[in-house]
Amino acid sequence: MTDSVLASADLEQRLRAIGEERYHIHHVFHHLLHGGRLSKGQVQAWALNRYYYQASIPAKDATILARLPSPALRREWRRRIVDHDGDGTAPGGVERWLALTDGLGLDRGYVTSLEGLLPGTRYAVDAYVHFVRERSLLEAVASSLTEMFSPNIISQRVAGMLRNYDFVDARTLAYFTPRLTQAPQDVAFALAYVTREARTRAEQDQVLAALRFKCDLLWAQLDALHHAYVSPGLPPPGAFRP
Amino acid sequence: MTDSVLASADLEQRLRAIGEERYHIHHVFHHLLHGGRLSKGQVQAWALNRYYYQASIPAKDATILARLPSPALRREWRRRIVDHDGDGTAPGGVERWLALTDGLGLDRGYVTSLEGLLPGTRYAVDAYVHFVRERSLLEAVASSLTEMFSPNIISQRVAGMLRNYDFVDARTLAYFTPRLTQAPQDVAFALAYVTREARTRAEQDQVLAALRFKCDLLWAQLDALHHAYVSPGLPPPGAFRP
Predict the structure, then answer these.
(1) Spatial contact of B125 and B53, defined as CB atoms under 8 Å apart
(2) Each residue of B60-111: pLDDT tens digit?
(3) Nearest CB to B223; choose among A21, A28, A227
(4) Is B223 in contact with A236 (Cβ distance < 8 A)?
(5) Distance of alpha carbon A34 from alpha carbon A164, whole angstroms
(6) A38 CA to chain B: closest CA distance, Å?
(7) Is the pLDDT of residue A16 over 70?
(8) Which of A22, A63, A123, A240 to mutate to test the interface with B (most CBs of B within 10 A)?
(9) Residue A179 — φ and ψ, nearest 5°?
(10) How many whole angstroms separate alpha carbon A180 and alpha carbon A154?
């Protein structure tokens, strides 16, 4: 007996259930971060490592862009790259992330050199770029759906960090504000896309698995940070030391 | 001023120095493992995760095999695949690793399904296969040079595990014995290859960086295990729970 095709609302409900279980809003490192229980050095380690994720998002989106079959779809996806790379006047997400690492007192050259990056961060982020190149376009688009959950985590993070750390302010956290409006716009498109294009139950299951994969790689980045900088707090050879 | 080309002995000395600093023989999880300070469940988690590394080695070697330019070089490298996949009568390394997971009481179907794998293991191992596909052939071959250090770690591991755990015996650890003779043979070839083919200092630096990369990915696998199963001992959603 094969499972039957899910109605759109059921598919969406199952996608949301994956977020409830696996989104990194439930990770202990996130709780420590927004709860004000990290030192400045630990927040630096987070920002430094997360920079590589931010810096790789345009490569991920350009890889998907290269696979989309029509001008209309590509125009829609191209907006993501503009959001992250800017237009030459308004700064994009990558530049705004560097404002955060600047504000935390990290040397910009050191951050962008990736010299102090945790290998675990590198492998998880590279896995994302490889995933969108190697899997079906449907799975590649579906893996972006963690943005369904990002406004919540961003709100927690920004409010908690502003309240609890005297070394951050609204200016250094400027990365996050535009994401609160950009992410829902991205989600509306991607959710409509996967709902429309996943026609069989097998394809719907691929969509669900792609979201699980993406949640896992966000989670693994916080695992690596927690191991290196919280408990036991053993950064691997060559990695950033606060 | 450019650094000058290193003599072969100097290159080899620098390769060995990387092992001294970064090889996972220095990782806290390895010390716990061979020192008898892990529970059976923690040893199961190690064997389960390490299975994915073992199972991916033939894909890594076949990727290099596909890039080697002559029958003589390919015959040399093909031996590695025979060592891991067997010849249909004598079991190869992958099969011998499954004897270890069997001996530890893990269900073989569960192990090979990869269902309980840590995402961090998956990303690190996949990074290895991607590396040998995407980097120069010189770097791909150089990344195998961690085998320079493997007889030491294997000796420590086998002696320590036999002494300290009543749930392993010489039969379940049979994976390791042939590796003590196979690895030096592999190293002799790979070391001669990189010494011969790295003609400029820039190429020699690539060789050194490739070995660092490989050490880091072995280290990252133990980081992921330590985080999930030792301290704080928080396996990510979906991962194996002892």
Answers:
(1) yes
(2) 999 999 999 889 899 999 999 999 999 888 899 999 999 999 999 999 999 9
(3) A227
(4) yes
(5) 8
(6) 16
(7) yes
(8) A123
(9) -65, -25
(10) 8
Average pLDDT along chain A = 95
Could you give phi then psi for residue A193, rounded to 5 degrees?
-65, -50
A236: nearest CB among B127, B216, B238: B216
Of B130, B212, B236, the CB nearest to A216: B236
Chain B hits for A237, Cβ within 8 Å: 21-22, 215-216, 219
For chain A, how many residues are written?
242
Tell me the percentage of chain A whose pLDDT exceeds 70. Answer: 99
- Chain A nearest C-alpha distance from B191 (Å): 24
Q: Go through the domains of chain A in sequence order and give each one's CATH number.
A: 8-229 (1.20.910.10)
CB contact under 8 A, A120 and B220: yes
Question: What SS3 state is found at A147?
Answer: helix
Closest A-chain CA to B213: A119
Q: Does position B1 have pLDDT exceeding 60, yes or no?
A: no
Place of tokens 């993070």: A157
Give the tokens for residue A120: 């675990």
Q: Structure pTM?
A: 0.88
Separation of alpha carbons A166 and A75, rounded Å: 41
Q: What is the pLDDT of residues A175-232, one digit of tens each?
A: 998 999 999 999 999 999 999 999 999 999 999 999 999 999 999 999 999 999 999 9
Q: Which residue in A21, A130, A238 is closest to B237 by CB distance?
A: A21
Number of Cβ pairs < 8 A linking chain A and chain B? 93
- B24: how many CB neighbours lie within 10 A of its CB? 22
Residue B191's pLDDT band (cuts 50, 70, 90): very high
HSE (side-chain half, CA atoms, 13 Å) at B36: 10
Quickly count helices (H) and strands (E) in chain A: 11, 0
